[in-house]
Amino acid sequence: MPQPPSRNPDGPPLIWDAHSCLPLDPAADIGMLERHRLAGTGFVSVNVGMDMNPVAQILPVIASFRRQIEAAPDQFLFARTIGDIDLAHATGRLAIGFDLEGAMPLLERPDMVPVFFDLGIRQIHLAYNRNNSVSGGCYDEDMPLTALGHRVVEAIGLAGMLMDCSHTGHRSSLDIIEHSPSPAFFSHANPRAIQGDLRNITDEQIDACAARGGVVCVNGIGRFLTDHAAGTSAILDCIDYLADRIGPRQVGLGLDYAYPDDGMNEFPFGIDRNYWWPAEQGYGVSGLQGVKCARPEQIPEILEGLDKRGYGDPDRRAIMGLNMHTLAASVWPEGTATLPGQAP
Ligand SMILES: [Zn+2]
Predict the structure, then answer these.
(1) Where are the domains of the chain?
(2) How many whole angstroms separate alpha carbon 88 and alpha carbon 5?
């Protein structure tokens, strides 16, 4: 059986960005993701909703993003399967998947998981910074996964969605990692030993994730790095720390780059930003606005930086994409079908 292009040691490496953000507005132009493609990215998971976004907002966002992906078949491909990602990588296109940041859009119904799966959601975490009825969030009182949370984790495993633990509280994340039917991972979270923000994760979380076969993807947001300007060397420092601790085959990248929203209305009217991004945790009055983040254009610099820091080619390829490719291939349902009009 021929090797998929992502495994070709002579071809370009597959770059997998486990999480970035478009404005959560159906009017957002996803053409801006061309920057990811031009930086050599093969797959990016984009957020389509967080705990503070109502389903009535999330569904039109999904509809709009899907329509726009399908209208640009020379640049983009809607990623439902690993086969889609391999096809995009082989043809110089960007495969785009969707993720949810928080369980509140599930409306306390585990049976909403397969519904969102059918809409294209391929990864989810259960709480966005704050506790909810399912799970604890990282900026709230530490709490275990609830009974409903256990049922949601079960449903996520059954659907074949990636179980993410970013933004999640300490105890809940450890419960999720222990009970998830498939290996849970962190799509964008940095070691707290490097930078002490509560949004970053402890060695206990890192070790537990790795012990069950998960991947920890380094976050490019400056406030979670030692360099608030999100310089490449600070990202490489996080990769070094993780590679030393759990080995390079369980480390990945989730830039968390937020494309400029151009004044769009991506949050519900009257949202309490101080609740979701608390001032006592160092956030300003405008929440995440003005926070610096690593740009997609830094991806080639990260690859080059790994080379300079002595990582061999197989480890560089693993960190930049293959580790997440392997994890997703083991979690997502099999299949190589592509949508009409997406053939090379
Ligand atoms: Zn996030």
Answers:
(1) 13-331
(2) 10
* Ligand 1 mean position, distance from CA 301 (Å): 23
Distance 24 CA to ligand 1 centre (A): 13
* Entry pTM: 0.95
Q: For residue 101, report the distance from its CA to the centre of ligand 1, in Å.
A: 7
Give residue-wise pLDDT tens across range 98-135: 999 999 999 999 999 999 999 999 999 999 999 999 99
Tokens in use for 28?
A: 């957002």
CA 343 to centroid of ligand 1, rounded, Å: 32
CA of 56 to the centre of ligand 1 (A): 20
pLDDT confidence tier of residue 53, bands split at 50, 70 and 90: very high
Closest CA to 95 of 166, 36, 13: 36
pLDDT-derived band at 344 (thresholds 50, 70, 90) equals very low
b/e per residue, 198-232, with b = 16+ CB within 10 A?
bbbbeeebbebbbeeebbbbbbbbbbbbeeeebbb
Tens of pLDDT, residue by residue over 146-177, are: 999 999 999 999 999 999 999 999 999 999 99
Query: Which fold would CATH assign to domain 13-331?
Result: TIM Barrel (3.20.20)
Task: Locate 136 and state its tokens.
Answer: 């604890």
If you ran DSSP here, which 8-state letter would residue 45 be given?
E
Is residue 221's pLDDT more than 90?
yes
Report how far ligand 1's centroid is from the alpha carbon of 255 (Å): 10
The CA-based angle 11-302-97, given to 5 degrees, is 70
CA angle (282 as vertex; 278, 286 as ends), nearest 5:
60
- 21 CA distance to ligand 1 middle (Å): 8
The Å distance, Cα 254 to ligand 1 centre, comes to: 9
- What is the per-residue pLDDT across 234-263, written as a single tens digit (0 to 9) for each? 999 999 999 999 999 999 999 999 998 877
